[in-house]
Amino acid sequence: ISEIKFLVTEILSNYSWYYFAMSVCESRSEERQSGGEQERYLQANNEEFNSMFGYPNNTIKTSKYNIFNFLPLNLFEQFQRLANAYFLVLLILQLIPQISSLAWYTTVIPLIVVLSITAAKDAIDDLKRHQNDNQVNNRSVLVLMNGRMEKKKWMNIQVGDIIKLENNQPVTADILLLSSSEPYSMTYIETAELDGETNLKVKQAIQVTSEMENDLNQLSAFNGEVRCDAPNNKLGRFTGVLTYKGKNYLLDLDKLLLRGCVIRNTDWCYGLVIYTGPDTKLMQNSGKTSFKRTHIDHLMNVLVLWIFLFLGCMCFILAIGHSIWESKRGYYFQDVLPWKDYVSSSFVSAILIFWSYFIILNTMVPISLYVSVEIIRLGNSFYINCDQKMFYAPKNTPAQACTTTLNEELGQVKYVFSDKTGTLTRNIMVFNKCSIHGRLYGAVYDRFGQKVEISEKTEKVSFSYNELADPKFSFYDKTLVDAVKRGDPWVHLFFRSLALCHTVMAEEKVEGELVYQAQSPDEGALVTAARNFGFVLRSRSPETITVVEMGKTIIYHLLAILDFSNVRKRMSVIVKTPDDRIMLFCKGADTILCQLLLPSCTPLRDVTMEHLDEFASEGLRTLVVAYRELDKSFFRAWFRKHSEICFCLEDRESKISSIYEEVEKDLMLLGATAIEDKLQDEVPQTIKTLNKAKIKIWVLTGDKQETAVNIAYACNLFEDEMDGLLYVEGKDDKTVEKELRSALYKMKPDCLLDSDPINSYLATKPKMPFRIPEEEPSGNYGLIIHGYSLACALEGNLELELLRAACMCKGVICCRMTPLQKAQVVELVKKYKKVVTLAIGDGANDVSMIKAAHIGVGISGQEGMQAVLNSDFTFSQFHYLQRLLLVHGRWSYNRMCKFLSYFFYKNFTFTLLHFWYSFYNGFSAQTVYDTWFITFYNLVYTCLPVLGLSLFDQDVNETWSLRFPELYEPGQLNLYFNKKEFLKCLVHGIYSSFVLFFIPMGTIFNSVRSDGKEISDYQSFSLIVQTSLLWVVTMQIVLETTYWTMINHLFTWGSLGFYFCILLFLYSDDGLCVILPNIFQFLGVAKNTLNVPQLWLSIVLSVVLCVLPALGYQFLKPLLWPLSVDKVFDTIHGLRHPLTYPVRSKLKMTGSRRSAYAFSHKQGFGPLITSGMFMKSKWPRKTIAHR
């Protein structure tokens, strides 16, 4: 009976679990289908249960197309171009025989070619994304299955799986840390692809799972249930509950390893998969892949619509003319030209003629325009790919145009959004200089006492006296090594303080090979410097720090760590020396520590401050180092108070800060350190050049504020001569609004008044979309805004105030930003400013802003390839950006504008001749040209000259382009091709067509040949008109060309010569007219017409009358309507030879600005060290866990 009861109970419990699971599953499935998953629920090692919720697998997808949707989706995108849709309509009309005056294949073949070329290019671009996706998805990882570890591909990982990760391995998905090889299941990770920071961070598993360690039996039996947040893009937030063995355990972000992180200094760790694939926080922040089109593409859509309306008006006028002519004159020709059966009246005939003219006049927008545009873009992309000056030899990496559709957009950029770490900087911290007891070390002088610039050829200091020195460390000032060797007490005390005052942890897996784990790369650099000069941090425990000083091992007893905080801007350690002295060593920001010094240090402080100013002028990150010897009785009393406050629950943080201040006073100054956060090559010069081109640069970084501001000064984004820096640091809407309004008032007081144009517009039309114009501030300012302040501004209807304030500043720093916030800033500028934006970055955390910007540039740097693979252009160094924009971008924009202006002009001239001719042919839709001339005009006769102009033309060479960045401005204002310039082309085309029709008509009117025969026949007139037309458009392109090459000459004059060859071949007595008389009907016209002087008179008069107005306009335009760049061109033309590009020297900054401090913004490893939880052998794992 007891066995039966047990069996029934077991069955009921199983059924209750099943029904519970089914109910939860149904509700979760409904939530996912509706797009509103409220929370995630899963169970470890239970694939059947988790699969019922419909969670996605771990596959990621950055591509746009697949084999099924490529054709419809790509065609849909291509037919968003109005011109392609226009040609499709035209094709349908040409299939109607009653109105078609041209064969249908004259449209369908070019249309298919254009669509096919574009589709092939898009397919190749997307194929690269597929290859990258496959590479990532097919990585392998160890998964716990049936009690043993098996390899599975990343894409097959499911929610609820337990996976094993090893050292230096990227994290597969967002996983809950269960256990690791380190004490207390701590795991060190690098988050460079998430927030751009390469300093290590620590994650720790909860105690109940850490006890499983790497026991596969326990891990296989683990059936904990997790309830947590639904997938979201909040990198800094994760909350959940783990239910295991009837107990609940709280989960937070410290327990979660995110996809994109890399395991460091940890042999192995196990984790439970929580979020996979598109649900991971990395992919939630990656943004959407959008179809990018240039501003010229958008303008072309508008212009095609204008042309379509203009074409409709012309066809309507000609149809009315035809109806009137048929009513007044047409009946006289009924016997010779009877109406077709389907034509019942002049009105019906006019309707048919309307569509006939619609087909004939379609060359106003020929499809060859789009073929030529794609060829031009492809050619300009080829120039970028082959530019040896953008080739980075150390990594063998060329620049690459990943897309060919955005070249001319590079010449119109107004805002550049840049990441900091890995983009502007190399993220390599180097101990550069120091000041010790009033003496400056780090500079190098020659034997004449002259300061020498440090280069690769400069001799390095030898650290052979120190067996534990880091061989990668470089220093050049021998006097500091000499001071260490001779035992200078101040120098020794200085480096002793650097070896003790930190929270760095040392690891020595191989004898003599030390690895330092630091929360901040700055701290790592300082400890490494102390190590090389002979004060080596060897190891530490919760109570001791072991330092090897000049070969002698000394153990200091660690009494307290006064850890860093944002408010304190300093940290201290209190140690007991072997000679029983109690010493406090402190390092921090000079603005703070100088207030804590003894009055007797004033002379030394003044000298040190001068050194700090010098360090700051070089853009170095500075720290002040001080010390104090504590009285034992004072320390005991202080330590007793400190211990009591540590257990206090109310207002604990402020009380701890107060107790720290009691001991951190009356300090003795030791000196200062200067660390160089190495910028990439030529970054300051590049930013200075881009600023001259009126390109505004905003730095969007996940790094801390002080670091970002320091880099902004170092790279010339901020300058000491600026009128001030404006800070937006509020944590609520009211504070942020107050700070923004204060910033606006400083820069432009009138913008807060109701009479301000933008404010008055918003008051009258609050919901109407509008663009914010450029505003001039009253001074030169920089803006620094924090990530949480930005969130308040974007969510609190303060985006306009934020944008207006930011756009008036010379430079903008946005710090502590999430990847999604970077994209939001870019979208904000795109929403309210009519400008072209460019985003540049090197990490996965930059992908969202790269996708959001009009142009995305990826730097192949230290943080993986995600940015590169999602970019439109890629290269290896930030300074290549100036060449990409000022040379390739400007040339591409200028060439495209010249091409469009000329192309529209020549086709307006070509097409509108039909309009004038219609008044002389009874509006019958007869063409003025031979059919074959119509076919060859855009395809052969005028194709190569305009391509030569568009691929090789340069108004100035690359040296001048870089020497005078002001030449870039016309592209930003879109001065060279816009609606106004289009109307000029139209007017010029109307005038030229008028001249080209009536001049030939006048020259042959009532004219005869030398033999007395009349020459005013249709075929002779047609030949004279088309020959005059080709001469006119050829001379026009000669005027437009400013840079002649052999290819230009060959294309221009060769095309004209080729026309005459074709003319003789097609229209001669022994040409194709004899072989195929039904197709080539102008028999003997070439020979007869080329001999008459009227032809050459017509050519000369037409060329003169058409070219003279263009010449006059080019001459008068800079005099009557000058542009700002005209003065620059005058300067260039006044110089006989191009100036060599200035020799690049390291830029110095003047002034007294200092770089605050070089600490990590986060609290360091202090609590971890004093807890002893990082120790492996001294503290048994389970004993400590229950203390």
Automatic annotation (TrEMBL):
MF annotations from Gene Ontology: ATP binding; ATP hydrolysis activity; flippase activity; magnesium ion binding; phospholipid transporter activity
Sequence positions that bind ATP: 419-421, 523, 564, 587, 621, 701-703, 816, 822, 845-846
Keywords: ATP-binding, Magnesium, Membrane, Metal-binding, Nucleotide-binding, Translocase, Transmembrane, Transmembrane helix, Transport
Predominant subcellular localization, coarse grouping: membrane
EC code(s) of this entry: 7.6.2.1
Catalytic site: 419
Annotated TM spans: 102-120, 302-325, 345-371, 899-919, 931-952, 985-1006, 1018-1038, 1050-1068, 1095-1116
Domain of life: Eukaryota
Domain P-type ATPase N-terminal intervals: 43-108
Membrane topology field: Multi-pass membrane protein
Residue positions binding Mg(2+): 419, 421, 842, 846
Family: Belongs to the cation transport ATPase (P-type) (TC 3.A.3) family. Type IV subfamily.
Annotated protein name in UniProt: Phospholipid-transporting ATPase
Species of the source: Myotis lucifugus (Little brown bat)
